[in-house]
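Fold this sequence, please.
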Amino acid sequence: MYRELGHFIVLIEEGSVTRAAARLGLTQPALTKSLRRLEDHLGFQLVERGPRGVELTEEGRSVFSHAKRVDAEMRHLELDARAVGLNRRKSLRIGASPSWSVGCVPELVQRLAATDMDLSVSVHVDLEARLVRLLADGEIDIALCNTDIDPGDSRVTGDALVHVEVRLAGRIGHPLLGAPLGDLSGVFACDWIDYHDALDQPAWGGGDIRSRVRGKIVKTSSWLNALLIAARTDGLLPLPTNVSHFLPAVGLTFIDGVSPLATFNAGIWRRDSFAMTKTGRAISIIARELMRSVHRTDTSFSRP
C-alpha cells in the first residue's frame, strides 16, 4: 500500500486528479484506481470531489497526516539504505531551539566531525513546539530542546540529559541587583516578563510563581523580545542559565543572591527509527557526554 499512499499524498497536494496524474506520470484512470484500492484496503472513503477539486473527508484528513509521516520515514530509510550500500555519507538533520543552537550545537557538530562516522550534518533552528512537529513528521532526525514539551507521538522518545537551572535576569542597574533578598518578597513585588508562556510550564513551577507575583506580568511570544523588554525596564525575566552568554549583549545580568526558582530537564528528543540505528546510538552517546561535560565544567553560572 506504500505506492498507493504516495499517490494519495500527491493527489491531495495537487488538489486535482489531472495535475496529480501528470506529476506522477500516470493516466487519470490509473490514479483513480490506485485511490480506490487504498480506500478499499482501509474500508472508508478518503476524498470527495468538490467545486475546487478533490477534498479530504474527515477520515481522509487523519490518513493524510499519517501518510505524510510514513512517506518521510520511508524516504529517510531509502537514503540510509543507499548510503550503506554505496558507502556514501549519511545525513543527520539536527533541530535546535535558539538557545541550544548557540549553547551546544557548534561543539556537538565539532565532536561529530572528530569521530570516524562519515556524516553530512545540517542544523535547523526553530521554536521548540515546531521542532517537535518536525520530529514527529520525520523532517529532522534529532532535536535539542526542553523535555517538558510532550512530543505527543509514539515514534518520538525523550532522553533527559541534565537539569537546567531557571534563574532571574534583570537589567544591569536593576534596584534588586546585589540586594539581600531573603524570602524573595522583593522579587515578587516587581514586574515580570513571561515569554512563550514560560510561567505556565509545570517543569518551571510557573503556576506557583505566577500566583505570587504582585507586579504586572508582561507576556511576549518571543524570548528575544523578552530580553529586550527586560533590558529596558525593571521587569524580571526567568531564564534557563544556558542563555547566560546572551545577557551582556542586551544589558542584562542574572541577579546575584537569587536562589534557583526551578529546574527542568533539558535533553534530546529523537525519532525511534533513527535512534535505533548504529549511527543514531553513537550520536546520542556523543550528545549525552557533551551535555554532561558542560554540566560538570561550566563555572560561569551555578547549577544544582
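Residues 2-81 form a domain with the Arc Repressor Mutant, subunit A fold (CATH 1.10.10.10). Confidence is low (pLDDT under 50) at residues 295-304.
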